[in-house]
TrEMBL record:
This is Short-subunit dehydrogenase. Belongs to the short-chain dehydrogenases/reductases (SDR) family. The keyword Transcription does not apply. It comes from the Bacteria. GO terms for molecular function: oxidoreductase activity. Signal peptide: none annotated. The lineage of its organism: Bacteria, Pseudomonadati, Pseudomonadota, Gammaproteobacteria, Oceanospirillales. One of its GO terms (cellular component) is membrane.
Length: 237
């Protein structure tokens, strides 16, 4: 990817997505930042201290599937290309399935799985025409194992794993890469947490994950990292 590449980041308002945005901006990427919280997005844009042709905020609820095509179109028209898509936004709840409401189950599957599939559909079309692009999906180490009390979340991340590996086989001949990063515990606001309050030896830092995203993007064009699994050493997995 070149210095001026355009990266779309979902869930950029806080946690991991925010760190990824900061690291990519420092490398010169132009950014389309997506989340529902406009205030947090604008605060991030202010901190990045970049003009509108470098960073734009898109207040958007990813469960609004019908509007995803026009969101991608607006970003593409505004920046002229889309070179990187980071499907990062995610939600999850730790409790038995019987205690999940139907709305909570829908939110998990919609934001974690269906929205990334629909976004990838429209963005990969653009990337295939460009003969260049990289989709990075933030999965979870729970993509490869079961966990009681996170049934809908685990199902969504198993889906992300399958989606990533399958889409890769559809688009790689056109120069488009797909990578899934299956992470263990990260110190963010996930599941009502407060970033900065996790025990430091039991959680990865968002900046470390963001650094990993950059390394994946910086591989030579002919090299593909299709999947990475990373945990804190002392986490059970
Ligand atoms: P976080 O701090 O809670 O951030 C979640 C992000 O997702 C926020 O920016 C939020 O923005 C966005 N989001 C949620 N619902 C949305 C919606 N309907 N539409 C648009 N954006 C929405 O959590 P995080 O840990 O950074 O999560 C990032 C990714 O890492 C997720 O995919 C998560 O599954 C994955 N992950 C996390 C961990 C962990 O231990 N933290 C471990 C493995 C994988 P708004 O609220 O402003 O919309």
């Amino acid at each position: 990817m070149s210095q001026e590449s355009v990266a779309v980041i979902t869930g950029a308002s806080r946690g991991l997505g925010r760190s990824i945005a900061i690291h990519l901006s420092r490398q010169g990427y132009r950014l389309a930042l997506i989340a529902r919280n406009q205030k947090e997005l604008e605060q991030l844009k202010h901190e990045l201290n970049k003009p509108d042709d470098k960073v734009q905020c898109f207040r958007f609820d990813l469960s609004n599937f019908a509007e995803i095509a026009s969101l991608v179109d607006r970003i593409h028209t505004s920046f002229g290309s889309i070179d990187v898509l980071i499907n990062n936004a995610g939600v999850g709840f730790y409790k038995p399935l019987s205690e999940h409401s139907t709305d909570e189950i829908n939110a998990i599957i919609n934001v974690n799985l269906t929205a990334p599939i629909i976004l990838s559909k429209f963005v990969s079309e653009i990337m295939q025409q460009q003969k260049l692009g990289h989709i990075i999906n933030i999965g979870s180490d729970l993509a490869q194992k079961p966990l009681a009390n996170m049934t809908p979340y685990v199902a969504s991340k198993h889906g992300v794993q399958g989606m990533s590996q399958s889409l890769l086989r559809e688009v790689k001949e056109d120069g488009v890469k797909v990578t899934v990063i299956n992470s263990g515990i990260v110190d963010t606001y996930f599941h009502g947490g407060v970033q900065g309050e996790q025990p430091s030896d039991k959680s990865l830092k968002p900046d470390e994950l963001a650094q990993l995203v950059l390394q994946v993007l910086q591989q030579p064009g002919y090299q593909l990292i299709d999947q990475i699994t990373v945990h804190p050493l002392h986490q059970e997995f």
